[in-house]
Amino acid sequence: MTKAVLTKRRTLLTLPFLAACANEQPTGPFVAQGPPSYGHLTPLRLRVGTLDIKDAESGTALMVQQPAPLLPSDVMLRMAHDRLSAAGGPGAARFVVQTAQLTREVASAAGTFSPASEVFRCIMRCQVEIISADDAVLAFAAAEVSREVTSPARDDAERAAIAERVVKMAGQDMNIEFEFQLRRHLRAWLQSVAEPGETLPQPVEREVLPHPLDG
């Protein structure tokens, strides 16, 4: 075998390895986008005098694994501030974040030419309570959603991007489920008269959310 043939063969054998190495290059720095806005949606006005949106507390229900550029609790609080309002009336309303988890686990080990794959899971649960003057719960509506994404993750920049993505997806699901549960369980406490120039949204008809999607 000639020297030229040997050189060509080595080059051909090296190309896949170089391509794999090129794919393994670390990504650039991740830039967080912040919580999505729900301000463009019609507010859900409760027939109460005051509305208390409580900040998330601590505990295992609020466990978040880093990197986490977007906290599930921040998304739910933003949704509550953007969508809920007090329209006036007796009593008060209270919004509580009950579960705001972001976890990840290894789905498959890294191979020779492929990075490890991880499962990113976000669980959100919140509750709106109608409270009497003596702090008794008169009525409530709870909403819970879960989303997960399985994806290769080579470094913390990619992990951060995937984590933000799954939290935003869970936030979209929560917005739908939250409105549905309020209209189902707190219908009598919702103001149904539109403000001047405002069109009220159609009731949410979807009860069962789709199963979490991968990728």
Write the layout of secondary structure elements.
Elements: H1 3-23, E1 44-46, E2 50-53, H2 72-83, E3 84-86, E4 92-108, E5 117-131, E6 137-152, H3 156-185
Parallel strand pairs: 1-3, 2-4
Antiparallel strand pairs: 4-5, 5-6
Helix pairs in contact: 2-3
Written account of the structure:
The chain has 215 residues and is an alpha/beta fold. The protein has a single domain (36-189), classed as Double Stranded RNA Binding Domain (2-Layer Sandwich). Helix content is 29%, strand content 27%. It has a four-stranded mixed beta sheet, with helices on one face. Strands 1-3 form a two-stranded parallel sheet. α2 (72-83) runs parallel beside α3. The model is unreliable at 4-26 and 200-215 (pLDDT under 50).
Uncertain parts: 4-26, 200-215
**Total number of helices:** 3
The residue fraction in helices comes out at 25-40%
Mean pLDDT: 80
- Secondary structure class reads alpha/beta
Strand order, sheet with most strands: 2-4-5-6
Radius of gyration: 24 Å
Largest sheet: number of strands, sense, barrel closure:
4 strands, mixed
Query: What fraction of the residues are assigned to beta strands by DSSP?
Result: 25-35%
Order of helices and strands: HEEHEEEEH
Remind me, CATH topology?
Double Stranded RNA Binding Domain
The top-level CATH class is Alpha Beta
- Distance N to C terminus: 48 Å
What is the β-strand count? 6
